[in-house]
Design brief:
This protein is of the alpha/beta class. It has two domains: 1-184 and 329-375, no CATH class; 185-325, Isopropylmalate Dehydrogenase (3-Layer(aba) Sandwich), CATH 3.40.718.10. The chain contains twelve helices and twelve strands. The protein has a twelve-stranded mixed sheet with strand order 3-4-2-1-5-12-11-6-7-10-8-9, sandwiched between helices. The longest helix has 25 residues, at 350-374. The protein starts with 25 loop residues before the first strand and ends with a helix. The model is unreliable at 1-7 and 12-22 (pLDDT under 50).
């Protein structure tokens, strides 16, 4: 397989994802970190769930998936792609050809698998370089397949950020990795549960660094990207954004912090001049009181926990993480690797199922929209 990826090049996206010539769109599902619950929930879900409007391509090492396929009674077809000794780029070309060939034959499967060829050993329930290699290679592979237009969407099982770093991938999470690979610096993370949507404008940063990371330009670009995504991907004609302040009481007129005055308000004014309906800055402790009224289409927080604590309280393990601003649809579970229960076969699949169903919905909405533009 490819060497430890210290300096991965960005991928040029040469063709639209999920080309209509392949019929039903292909949605890849990555196994995640093999030391966690990722392979388990993927096998468990697709042992019982067969998508009707897409084809699911489960991407991970054969030995990672096999015990879970056997445990949950999940007989799946594997793409005939020899993976031994191949780099990710070469493997992706072979996989792309195999996908095209298989989808042109009769009796197209609704679920099949792609072996990454990674054979490194790992231990359940702990971070490791080898676990990060398994996860990273699968993600690289699906990035190549997306760039060539052979998959229209991606659903990711959880990874360990520490393991990913140990393996040489210099990213703090999925979103940052895809932002780099697809040269999409403005992509944002939208947490979704039904019509309840939350965006943290900064993500995996120490709390002490958040204020410095918030600039008028960054907040403006982020808010515009969110507004565009809610309109395009979620079909809200004129989305209404609610934006949190950073400080208690949204700064209270500068008494407990001036980021609202210096950064957030100027950014909101810029976005409002672009025709976006936007309210804020609202004190963080009051922002989500409107979550159930339907007044706002998306709530924008200034940092990770400010938005995700109330989101997870409401979503109750059924939330979905959507990355907007990428050339393909990407969704993920709203939980981590759960090392404490890895290998026990008890992990809940609700979030993964919600993530796949939403990916299928978003992919098909994009395809309909693209068809309308062509006509």
């Amino acid at each position: 397989m490819s060497k430890t990826p210290r300096n991965r090049k960005r991928i040029r996206h040469d063709s639209p994802p999920g080309r209509a010539r392949l019929g039903k769109p292909v949605i890849a599902v990555s196994a995640g970190d093999p030391a966690g619950v990722g392979p388990e929930i993927v096998a468990h879900l697709f042992a019982k769930y067969k998508p009707a409007r897409s084809v699911a391509l489960l991407v991970g090492a054969r030995q990672v998936f096999r015990p879970w396929f056997e445990r949950f009674g999940c007989p799946l077809e594997e793409l005939p792609v020899p993976s031994g000794g191949r780099g990710v780029g070469t493997l992706s070309l072979a996989a792309a050809a195999a996908i095209e060939t298989r989808l042109r034959t009769r009796g197209i499967p609704r679920v099949f698998t792609l072996d990454t060829g990674c054979r490194e050993r790992y231990s359940l329930g702990r971070d490791s370089k080898s676990g990060g290699r398994h996860a990273g290679i699968a993600l690289e592979l699906v990035c190549h397949l997306a760039a060539s237009g052979h998959i229209a969407g991606l659903v990711t099982a959880p990874i360990s950020k520490r393991s990913l770093g140990l393996a040489g991938y210099p990213f703090t999470g999925h979103t940052e990795m895809f932002s780099h690979f697809f040269d999409a610096p403005d992509c944002q993370m939208v947490m979704v549960h039904g019509k309840f949507r939350v965006v943290p404008l900064t993500r995996h940063l120490p709390l002490k660094d958040v204020s410095r990371a918030l600039t008028v330009e960054r907040v403006t670009v982020g808010l515009l990207a969110v507004a565009a995504a809610i309109k395009e991907d979620f079909g809200v004609v004129k989305p209404h954004l609610a934006v949190a302040g950073l400080n208690p009481h949204a700064g209270d007129g500068g008494i407990v912090g001036k980021e609202e005055i210096d950064v957030i308000v100027p950014a909101i004014k810029r976005v409002r001049r672009r025709g976006v309906r936007i309210t804020g800055p609202v004190p963080g402790d009051a922002l989500f009181q409107q979550a159930e009224t339907g007044e706002f289409d998306v709530f924008v927080s200034m940092y990770h926990d400010q938005g995700l604590i109330p989101f997870k309280l409401i979503a109750k393990r059924r939330g979905v993480n959507v990355t907007v601003g990428l050339p393909l649809v990407r969704t993920s579970v709203d939980h981590g690797v759960a090392y404490d229960i890895a290998g026990k076969g008890v992990a809940n699949v609700a979030s993964l199922e919600a993530a796949y169903r939403l990916a299928e919905q978003l992919v098909n909405r994009r395809r309909v929209r693209a068809k309308g533009r062509r006509n």
